[in-house]
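Q: Predict the assembly, please.
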Amino acid sequence: MSNFLELSLAEMRNGLKNRTFSSREVTEFFLNRIDEKDGELKAFLSLAPEKALNKSEEADKRFAKGGDDLPALLGIPLAVKDVLAVEGMPATAGSKILEGFEPSYTSTAVSKLIDAGMIVVGKTNTDEFAMGSSTENSAYFTSRNPWDISRAPGGSSGGSAASVASQMVPIALGSDTGGSVRQPAAFCGVTGIKPTYGRVSRYGLIAYGSSLDSVGVLGRSAADVAELFKVMAGKDPLDATSLDKPVPKINLNGSTNLKGMKIGVPKEYFVEGIQAEVEEKVREAIQQFENLGAEIHEVQLPHTEYAVPVYYLIAPAEASANLARFDGVRYGLRNENDDVIEMVKESRGAGFGEEVKRRIMLGTYALSSGYYDAYYGQAQKVRTLIQNDFLEVYKKVDMIAAPVAPTTAFKIGMHTDDPLAMYLEDVYTLPANLAGVPGLAFPVGFDQDKLPVGMQLMGRHFEEEKLFHAVHAYQNSTEWHTMTPSG
Amino acid sequence: MLLTKEEVEHIAKLARLNLSDEEKERYREQLSSILEHVTRLQSLDTEDVAPLTSVLAKEMPLREDIPLEGLSLKEVMKNAPDVRANQFKVPPILDGADE
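A: Predicted assembly structure:
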């Protein structure tokens, strides 16, 4: 009997194909783990165990038939962040304003994975409308970090990160608008990709900041994450911002040779405020990349200090427009009133949580008459400067190595009084969203409280393949990514 | 503080949000603090810089003007709070609204 917890996705695929075990066994196994652990971890907002088991039996019938054209990920369970539409399952975006809402279609990214045979077992917890870094802003409950349940798993894809770190599922989807895949990946010791903007369709992703949003994957290794990335990527006629770029084959073959690869280390990311052990582990990892043959160069991203103000003008501005649709008219929470405007105000006032309202207000102000040029307009211009910083550095190096967060996972409840302090902790992840470049986060060690430390590699637009190769090589020569909370 | 209570009420009205007095005061403080922080962007010279209006694509992709199938009426109405005769029922719009 195989221990499903130790199999990579490729090994799981082989075992299923060779009929060493069945999809039903695999799915049942993970559903049991969810039963055992989710009461404490609270990673899931909704589960669909019966549907999942039915799908697993369909998958087994397909395996029995055999053939050369079996879908690439047939029979493997998947968790999906509750900001992605899956037909027949709820989609709350972690908000009360969408309590009970069920979409009538499935997002393209999930559709592609379902076509590849994956089985969606449930929807994971998220900060409300993906606004937050801990799941503390979820209107339902806060998820727990499997390494220390008094701490946050990170966010906003905290439910997905916790589900993968605790192995309640082998792999999960998230979304990353300002770091929401990479930061929880780092806090939970898993691997997470934020693809290039436009690489994966946003159709069916509940929009937060449309020029920043990206569908991502969290898994136990670069190799596993790459499997799903390959399937999801590609132009989608239903998303006008998805780009017509060929999806690379990405053959990760156990290599540990990074000769010829040039990695830049930006001095602006290693300043005061970073936890000493985070810097230590990240620098050790960079040394390991050098041991594997990469050239390390010091580089500069001079506008890094402006990433927070730029993001916290652009994202709320876009959010204020995207969330205008939640008015109680066609779907979602409605608080009745004889006056239609009051009805809208009451519904939104009651249905949205505090962080969401704060960002809508900030965005509305930044876009309002008399303030547009000074705030939103200026932010858009500085955004160009931030993107240019990256393009300039990429003339010299292939990718940039950096921490993901200034600290390891923080205690739940620590930040609730000071939103600005929370925003400032996003400084290392925001730039990739502003520039549209891909970022791959992966574990590089632990601090003295045994909390995971993560780092990220950020690449040129559309060069996710190089990032996967580099992290794969690192993971073939280290063991951080194999560690689990239980041992 | 950067924002007055009246400005907060104005923003809330534009954003169609009903806020309690306590919320208004809390947001006034927090938004003022955040806006003070973002004001540092004004120190940058961006006179010759184009705004990043599109992350990567420089053109809007078009498609052939061929109608595709949409959602059925049943699907569209299934999440609606109040449905009458296959329409979304809302309070009167033209009579009484003063804004």
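Chain A is about 40% helix and 10% strand. The first helix of chain A runs from residue 9 to 17.
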